[in-house]
Amino acid sequence: MVGVGGRSKACDNCKRRRVKCDLSKPQCARCIKARLQCGGPRGIAIIQYGRGITTQSDDSDPARSSALETIATAPANIQQPVPEIHPGLSLSQDETFTAFTLLHFLPTSGVLGVAPGTITTKSFLALATTYFGIKRQDSAITQFGLKRYSDALGAVHSALEESISSPTFDLLEAIMVMSLIESLVSDRENGWINHARGLERLFEMRGPEAMASLPCLMILERTRPSLIFAGLILRKPTIMSNIEWKRDPWCLHPERVDSLKLMFDILADCPSLFVLRDKLSSYPDEETRMTAARSLSEEFQRVVASLDSWGERFASDPSHTPVEIPAVRTTPITEDEGGTLRSAWSTVFRYRSLYHANAMAMYNATTILALRFSDSIHVGSESPFERHIRKRRMSEAALSICRSVEYHQQELWGEQGSFALLFPLRMAYDGLSEEEPTVGAWLQSVIHDISAGKQGLWRSAKSLLEIGR
Q1: SS3 helix, strand, coil % of the chain, rounded to 5?
Q2: What is the pLDDT of residue 325?
Q3: Which of 184, 221, 246, 322 is most deeply buried (CB count within 10 A of its CB)?
Q4: Which residues form the Zn(2)-C6 fungal-type domain (predicted)?
């Protein structure tokens, strides 16, 4: 038609940045240069799906049965809507929901593979419909999205029963999307945890080498944090701590090994430390317990050394240092020992990108986790000076997280900025709330606003301060 431009085939990042895309697959050159996750040029299938072999389920496979029980029997804490709502939903409406979600929910993540006829399509349309309904405060559309969630959960259930030892890429990506929906609409603390543990079992069935293709690797990169967080909360080890899971999936794409990936390598070692710590009280005599405690302390010191090394490497690049600007009006007011009122911090951080902000937030959160862990094992004597240094370092890490909140919650990042803040916010609260109760109350209000949709939209944040207690 004369005067009407054709639909751009540029990838979503280039289209949003209004630059020319070279249409390279699987990633365009501009996205590689800008270190953005590229979904490739727009087309019928954005990410090519691998086809797994399916057959009748074998009930003798305990790993698959466990994954099925964990994921498929974990419905969201929602009231099941009736299927008659919006029975004639048109394709144009689905496109509207999808475009809205990609723009506002996932603006910097590249495009999910939503090829027609896949379980991921069902899952993503459930996410897009629910998200659109919530943001527009349209209860009918929201309920229809939740109905789609229920249908997609049924499709996942069927696929789990049919899969053999190697679950398909489609199934893995669908479960990843289902976990996002659970975090979005459910305030149950175990909803997303069930999805994460089930997904980890499916990864284990595939093996690390089978996750080396770019589409599978991107799924692993997006979900690995949740798998580690679930292990921390449940006090159970994660396969992500195994050396082969830190190495093999990246063997074909070493360029994707970055600072944030290496930080999660360190964090992945922490769940097993808590498992070993909790076993200390079960030893029958003091000598055995102290021997185990000293061994645990050595393991802990290795984690701290890795953290310190990571921090030094990251800080050695001047571009990683954030710019400081005057603090915003919502900064909490504290009272010093002399009774003088002052802002808890005078400046906030502006990072080069959300990636850099996330890396520093995770570093500070992991630092707090490690320092609090050291308080719980009580090995050897500690001088008052050493205790003072540890507490000061913990406070500095917590305040650094607080000073990044405003940057993370910029509208530019959609819901991703607030999502990346959830674990750091919990760690900041643990590290600072007793010493600075005013800042602790402020952190509670930030978490409440994320749960209520005032800043970000993650109902799972409602239980953030209770989980793992």
Answers
A1: 60, 5, 35
A2: 95
A3: 184
A4: 10-38
What is residue 325's three-state secondary structure? strand
Buried b (16+ CB within 10 A) or exposed e, 271-291: bbbbebbeebeeeeeeeeeee
Q: Is 303 in contact with 266 (CB distance < 8 Å)?
A: yes
- Parts of the chain belonging to CATH 4.10.240.10: 11-42
User: Residue 377's pLDDT is what?
Assistant: 78
pTM confidence score? 0.78
Judge whether 327 and 346 are in contact, CB under 8 Å. yes
Whole-number pLDDT of residue 9: 61
Residue numbers in the chain where pLDDT is lower than 50: 1-7, 42-88
Closest to 304 in 3D by CA, of 340, 266, 275: 266
Contact 200, 237 (CB under 8 A): no
Region for 234 from its dihedrals, namely left if φ exceeds 0, alpha if ψ lies in -120 to 50, beta otherwise: alpha
How remote is the C-alpha of 387 from its chain's centroid?
A: 32
> Which residues fall within 8 angstroms of residue 207, CB to CB, at 6 or more apart?
none
